[in-house]
Design a protein that fits this description.
heterodimer; A: 668 residues; alpha+beta; five-stranded antiparallel sheet; 19 helices; B: 315 residues; alpha/beta; Rossmann fold; six-stranded mixed sheet; four-stranded antiparallel sheet; 32% helix; 22% strand
Chain lengths: 668, 315
């Protein structure tokens, strides 16, 4: 029996979304850069003293900075003119991604408007202003030999100060913590992966945050950094050297933990666990829609599922309810080898009656050409059933009691009907909850669909909706006796086509890469904070960002005004006035002020969210624990490594300027 | 000094320490103007808090001036590339205590454009020069103060600098170590290097510096060569040998000086310095092991013999 589903809190970034995501990044990072540069200029102009030794600003940088602010002001003017003109320039304003409720796929990004391009250009110019001095130093003055010398120093320091020894002892204890956690045989691998992740993550995060936070401040406090920066060493080389040294240390530690873990798992896995999650499934998900219902909400907390039910004798006029997964396209490899194609699913059951003990819900599965609408499917299903019955009767008569011949004939009939009607039906399947089950569909169906793809266009001229190549339609069989009325809960990721299965161990390593990205994120933030703050304050700042990152979804909910009660001022007003929290406020001057103040608060929250790392994005342990493949390109490269670089890059720039501006020997 | 290359120059160099809110806390240096020429040993003198270390830190780019300029080899002090030609020995030996002597010099050598072979050769040579060959594998945590000072000087010389900046180089050293350091500094000057030495030990500065600047409360009080600053042109000193001071000699000398308008202030035996005495005694002790001090008479007034001076404790 299997139990493996992977429901993700948010849809991962796709390659097609990358250009708009980069645009958004340039706008956001550029905005921060423009603001920081403005504050710096203002501080230098307003100050009556000049501090020599700071970075000199070139004329080109001043021009670029000025142009960027003209761009930002231009966008503000667009908003102002649009507001005054009652929305006449709406199509020019910058677009924004609407909030996406959990479990939903984000809509495709709208085309970029004039406002988007203006904002991007302004952000790009501001970034160029900030980056130019950095790139000059990096390209013309920095030497990797010096960086590596400082990195080696960091490694030696960590080893000789017994950090590595203490860490190794702790890691060893945690690696075998699952000995003390009871589990069922089928959960052996899942349990180990979870325990390993939840024990190693805080251990590595704490180590990274402490090493990163205290490295440079200790040097400054002990003044040993004086003997380094009085050599021809750029201060940023010190930062990079420290970061690189700790990165090497942590990477080696992670590699050691991974190696020991793999050996531990490889020593023996139960048969049940092998079926459960000792694999790396490569799923192909479809888009879920409901027919005859909108997918009922049965009140389960944290559930993204919608529920369907079957016909009941007491409700003869009830419309048939279906859950349909539409697959826009399928790889040509699906069904090419002639082997049955596997579909796995794990649904939830909400019981309306006690039902029959040890019996699940009987369901029908239709695997069909995506061109067919639901009425077509119903008619075709009936026709297939009639034809099958007719042909089956003839085959029985012809077989004359020969079971083997009869079976062969029946298989032939099914294949013929499948190819003719492009549909495969499994009716009366006993779906149980808390298990992942599997159905096999003959490869002939997919071979037929691939043939159709080559010869017949799916999208007709004038069609508004995209016609999928393939669909799976699930319905609950009618409860003819009225004794077993149940509801079937389905979500998009509950059903998938199992395209391939890969090595668990390779997947395990990929999961560790996700953890590595998380640890590097924390290390980068810690090192950046330590360039200006003391060790303890750096560490506290780092922990603050990490904890805030764990609650990004909750903060986003507040920022999107999706929480009950509204903003803080509105909630306080309701509490003080003893109004219902979920109710709407009557319009009045007071409530208008309250609403606007709360909107400003939400704006600050959204701005704050730009600084907070998305910690949970790097959590890939559920993929490994549940036996789902982590893709090299989408999951690792795009959603982990690229995101890590995008977040750490501004911190690196900030650390460059903090170190450059810092008077190392100033006792104040 | 005319015709000499200026290695370091400050022009109205000012440093005011402020707190986080920009409030003035201390004026550490006020409009300092001075020049250091190539090939000289330049001393920065002053009591604690006079601005000596601040000046050095400004020259090294560890601090930014509030006003004025600091130029080293014609470049602003904040320019990192000038550090290729500078060696710096801090007041305290702020080295990494988990490294040994070889690793320390190798690490600092890697921060310059020195090939691995040259680095290894220089490391061994400098360790020999500073007298730490027997302790080169021990980590710095186990070193004494004097040993750390020596390795600190070695790291300052790893790049064979043209300008060597020493902050309290003899601090914490015994007289032997102090003499050794001073000899080394003179040796560096003789190699053509320029040395800036910051100290509040007047005898050390007087001994080896060519020129000094005296600071007090951030202001330059005096600047010039040691010889000219210390020379008292109003008085004359003469040393003679072959005679002992007596009344007849004094009377004759008074007559001669009176004819020239002068008078005797003091006739007596010249004194050496305590340092010279100390060094001579230590040298004798090393040359004659077992030699010990013999008082002229015992408490009962009788001469003390060698046997009487032996300790009662048997080895």
């Amino acid at each position: 029996m299997l139990f493996a589903t992977l429901i993700q809190d948010r849809a991962p970034l796709q390659w097609v979304e990358l250009p708009r995501a980069m645009m958004t990044w340039v706008q956001t990072a550029g905005g921060v850069a423009a603001l920081a540069a403005l504050l710096w200029f203002a501080a230098n102009i307003a100050g009556s003293r000049r501090e020599k030794g700071r970075l000199t600003v070139s004329r080109a940088a001043v021009v670029a900075f000025g142009a960027s602010w003209i761009g930002f002001v231009g966008v503000l003017l667009l908003f102002a003119v649009n507001w005054m003109g009652d929305g006449t320039l709406q199509h020019w304003l910058p677009t924004s991604t609407p909030p996406v409720p959990p479990g939903q796929l984000p809509p495709p990004p709208p085309p970029a408007t004039l406002g988007d391009w203006l904002l991007t250009a302004a952000g790009g110019l501001a970034l160029a202003t900030i980056l130019a001095p950095v790139l000059t130093v990096v390209v013309t003055r920095m030497r990797w030999g010096r960086i590596w010398a400082i990195a080696s120093l960091s490694l030696k320091e960590a080893v000789r100060s017994k950090v590595v020894l203490i860490f190794g002892v702790m890691a060893l204890v945690f690696l075998f913590a699952d000995w003390f956690v009871p589990y069922k045989p089928e959960n052996q691998v899942r349990n180990y992966v979870r325990v390993l992740y939840w024990s190693m993550t805080p251990l590595f995060l704490m180590t990274a945050s402490l090493l990163g936070s205290f490295g440079i401040p200790t040097d400054v406090k002990s003044q040993s950094i004086h003997t380094i920066v009085t050599k021809p060493v750029e201060k940023f080389e010190v930062v990079l050297g420290r970061f690189l040294g700790y990165t090497v240390l942590i990477t080696v530690g992670l590699a050691a933990v991974t190696a020991v873990s793999i050996l531990y798992v490889a020593r023996g896995v139960t048969e049940e666990a092998k079926l459960e999650s000792f694999t790396a499934r490569e799923p192909i998900y479809g888009m879920l829609t409901y027919h005859g219902t909108k997918g009922e909400n049965v009140g389960r907390m944290y559930d993204v599922r919608g529920y369907i039910t079957g016909q009941h004798p007491n409700q003869p006029n009830q419309q048939n309810q279906y859950a349909s997964w539409a697959f826009d396209s399928l790889p040509s490899s699906v069904g090419a080898d002639g082997n049955p194609v596997r579909f796995q699913f794990g649904f939830d059951i909400f019981r309306l009656t006690k039902g029959t003990e040890n019996q699940g819900v009987l369901c029908s599965f239709l695997f069909a050409d995506g061109r067919m609408q639901i009425p077509d499917l119903e008619r075709t299903k009936e026709r297939v059933k009639r034809e099958f019955d007719q042909l089956h009767a003839k085959a029985v008569a012809k077989a004359g009691g020969d079971a083997v011949a009869l079976q062969k004939a029946v298989d032939g009939i099914k294949l013929k009907l499948l190819e003719e009607h492009r549909m495969y039906v499994t009716a009366g399947f006993n779906v149980t909850d808390y298990h992942t089950q599997q159905l096999e569909v003959p490869a002939a169906l997919f071979q037929r669909l691939h043939q159709l793809e080559a010869t017949e266009a799916r999208q007709q001229a004038g069609d508004a909706a995209r016609v999928p190549m393939f669909q799976v339609v699930v319905s609950v069989d009618p409860d003819t006796q009225g004794k077993n009325q149940q509801m079937l809960g389905v979500a998009r990721q509950d059903l998938y086509l199992l395209a391939a299965e890969h090595s668990f161990f390779a997947n395990f390593v990929k999961g560790i890469v996700g953890l590595w990205c998380l640890v590097m994120l924390v290390l980068g933030v810690a090192v950046a904070c330590s360039t200006y703050l003391s060790g303890v304050i750096s560490w506290l700042c780092t922990i603050f960002f990490v904890v805030a990152g764990l609650f990004v979804a909750d903060i986003q909910e507040l920022a999107d005004n999706r929480s009950a009660g509204g903003g803080p001022l509105e909630s306080a007003f309701k509490l003080a006035s003893r109004l219902p929290i979920a109710g709407q406020l009557d319009e009045s001057p007071t409530t208008t002020i309250i609403t606007h103040v709360d909107e400003v608060y939400r704006w600050w929250l959204r701005s704050f969210l730009n600084l907070v790392p998305d910690i949970t994005r790097h959590d890939l342990h559920r993929h490994v624990a549940e036996g789902f493949d982590i893709s090299w390109t989408s999951d690792l490269l795009l959603n982990n490594i690229l995101m890590l670089l995008g977040y750490l890059f501004p911190w690196a720039i900030l650390s460059f300027y903090l170190m450059k501006y810092r008077e190392i020997a100033n006792p104040m | 000094m005319a015709g000499q290359e200026t290695v370091v120059e400050t022009r109205k160099l000012t440093k005011i320490y402020r707190d986080f809110w920009g409030r003035q806390k201390k004026v550490a240096l006020r409009a300092l103007n001075l020049q250091v020429f190539r090939g000289e040993i330049f001393g920065l003198l002053g009591p604690n808090g006079s601005g000596k270390t601040t000046t050095i830190k400004l020259l090294l780019g560890l601090l930014f001036p509030t006003d004025g300029d600091a130029l080293v080899f014609g470049q602003p002090a904040a320019e990192v590339r000038k550090n290729e030609r500078i060696g710096y020995l801090p007041e305290e030996s702020y080295l990494y205590r988990f490294l040994n002597a070889e690793e320390t010099l190798d690490f600092y050598g890697r921060l310059f454009k020195i090939s691995r072979k040259d680095r290894e050769e220089r490391t061994q040579r400098l360790i020999e020069t500073v007298g730490l060959a027997q302790d080169k594998k021990r980590i710095l945590k186990e070193y004494s103060k004097g040993m750390r000072q020596r390795i600190g000087l070695a790291q300052a010389l790893i790049n064979d600098p043209e300008l060597v900046i020493l902050d309290e180089p003899t601090s914490g050293l015994d007289p032997l170590g102090t003499r050794w350091m001073k000899d080394l500094i003179i040796g560096l000057r003789n190699q053509g290097k320029t040395i800036i030495m910051c100290s509040h030990r007047l005898e050390d500065v007087q001994d080896i510096c060519d020129r000094v600047a005296i600071l007090n409360e951030g202001e330059l009080q005096e600047l010039g060569s040691v010889k000219s600053l210390l020379e008292d042109v109003q008085r004359m000193e003469m040393q003679a040998s072959g005679v002992q001071p007596n009344d007849a000699l004094r009377k004759d000398l008074e007559e001669v000086l009176a004819r020239h308008g002068g008078k005797i202030e003091f006739i007596g035996h010249p004194t050496t310095t305590l340092e010279d005495l100390f060094l001579r005694i230590i040298a004798k002790s090393k040359a004659h092991p077992g030699r010990r001090y013999l008082p002229e008479k015992s408490p009962d007034g009788k001469p003390v013999t060698e046997a009487q001076a032996q300790p009662a404790i048997k080895k």
